[in-house]
Amino acid sequence: MSYYLVLVGTLDNPLYEAFLTSTKSASSTIMSVPPTLNSPSPSTSFSIFGALPTGGGGGGTPSATGTPSGSNVGYGHKNGPGGRHVMQLVAHASLDVVEDVQWGNGGMYLKSIDKFHEWTVSAWLTPGGVKIILLHELKNDEGIRLFLQETWETYVKTLLNPFHELNSPIRSPTFDARVKASAKKHL
Amino acid sequence: MTNRDSLTPSVRDSISSTSRFSSLLSPTSTPSTTTTPRSSSSTFPIPQPSPSLPPLPPNLKRTSIIYDRPLPKARGTEVALGAWAFLFSEIIQYTQKRVSGIGEFEKRLNILGYRVGSRLLELLPLRDYLYPISSLRSPPPPTRTLRLLPILSYVHSTLYRYLFGRPADSLERSTDNEDEYMIGDDDMVVTRGVEVPKEMSELSCGALVAGIVEAVMDGAGFPARVTAHSVPSVPHPRRTVILIKLDPEVLAREAALGGK
Q1: Domain assignment present for B90
Q2: 3-state secondary structure of B167
Q3: Quick one: a GO biological-process term for this protein (chain A) (predicted)?
């Protein structure tokens, strides 16, 4: 399954983003996926990404081309450029929801605040006003919480570098490696 | 502060939504300059999977010690007051050579403090959460501060105790303006070694602490303009007051949240 992680700074500027994939596709967590998606094999193409399912119980056939087919309306393959733009767009749209929620809920972990088709948006608000937003398809609350918490920890360590300015994009390869290792462990 | 050109007076007037320093603290370049679009038809650039740095010469190795260092504060790592006084006097001298007025002087100290405060604000809750003082089996989930009075008392007690080993001496609300709060410190530790000459009597080197407080208030979502003022009195000749002037939006939000 794929995930999209973005860190949004205090000025609503992106600091870091990553497209993550996980091998845990057919685990027990699939039980909590909405019933529209419970095909036996994890499908890599969904209705909003072109290739509308035609038959009943369909949707399990991945679109081989990875590009939106001419006759169907869609955004293209999930892992293609079009699909990635959708993920950026969904994450961006969820910022409004985060602002709605953040003054009513004192926690840092805001789980499942927004939904767009198969994407669920969870967020982690740091005390310094940075928003860590994760798009996910599976409901894996504990893993996601641990992953977001570790991302926060890694971010704080980045910030502790005196040469790192607040709200500047994170380009450290170590940060990238840490986030990916954490994703492999928890997602 | 290496970027001297950015400290022109016009910056002071440009108040952004989050901080009046944000134009200084954030880089001027747009965040996604290194990205390359995957396809020519894309409107927005898609970032590379991993950000790439310029390659190093083969005999050098990039270290990552800041990521491997543990977060808890070890005992006995407090900075000696003498060492601090020496460092602070160098900061003051360095700054004094590069400013033209007291306002600019304090602004520069304020910016230095802001850089400290924005890091403390993230670090302290993380440390408390990962390494709680009490040995509870599972620490409570980390929380954010939503209301004005808790954040003020957090600054007054927790932050102050972390920085200086004791809480501040007073926390008051201004009687004249309801958007102003004052944190009083009878003998501020950072300025203990500073003797301000008479012709610069308006200067308060506590501007550094004001910058720390401003960063904490800004980051926690309570944008404010924080300044330090020397208010000498007979029992406390070194008394400093940190004046917190909140943005109107904070008071409006407080009023909206008031029913809860």
Answers
A1: yes
A2: coil
A3: endoplasmic reticulum to Golgi vesicle-mediated transport
Q: Which of B43, B46, B119 sits opposite A160 (nearest CB)?
A: B119
Strands B180-185, A14-21: parallel, antiparallel or unpaired by DSSP?
A: unpaired
> For residue A32, what is the domain's CATH number?
3.30.450.70
Instruction: Tell me if ipTM is over 0.95.
Output: no
Work out how many CB contacts closer than 8 A connect A with B: 133
Cα nearest neighbour of A103 on chain B: B146
d(CA A61, CA B30): 40
Domain count, chain B: 1
Given 3-state DSSP classes, what are the helix, strand and coil percentages for chain B, each rounded to the nearest 5? Answer: 40, 10, 50
Rounded-to-integer distance, Cα B209 and Cα B219, Å: 15
Are the beta carbons of A88 and B220 separated by less than 8 Å? no
pLDDT tens string B126-184: 888 887 766 666 667 788 888 999 999 999 999 998 888 889 999 999 888 889 999 99
Whole-number Å distance between alpha carbons of B6 and B43: 32
Q: Is residue A127 part of a domain?
A: yes
Task: Please tell me the distance from the alpha carbon of residue B141 to that of residue B68, in angstroms, as a whole number.
Answer: 24
Neighbours of B15 (CB within 10 A): 15
Note whether residue A51 is domain-resident.
Answer: no
Element (DSSP H or E) covering residue A158 = helix A141-160
What digits encode the pLDDT tens for the residues B56-111?
Answer: 677 666 666 778 877 777 666 788 888 989 999 999 999 999 999 899 999 999 99
Q: Which of A102, A152, A157 is closest, CB to CB, to B66? A: A157
List the beta strands (DSSP E) in A31-168.
109-116, 119-125, 131-136
| Owner of token pair 């927004």 | A114
Which chain B residues touch A88 with a CB distance below 8 Å? 44
In whole angstroms, what is the distance from residue A46 CA to residue B47 CA?
23
What Å distances lie between residue A127 and A11, B195, B199, B221, CA to CA?
A: 14, 36, 41, 9
Q: Look up residue A51 and give its two tokens.
A: 């290739």
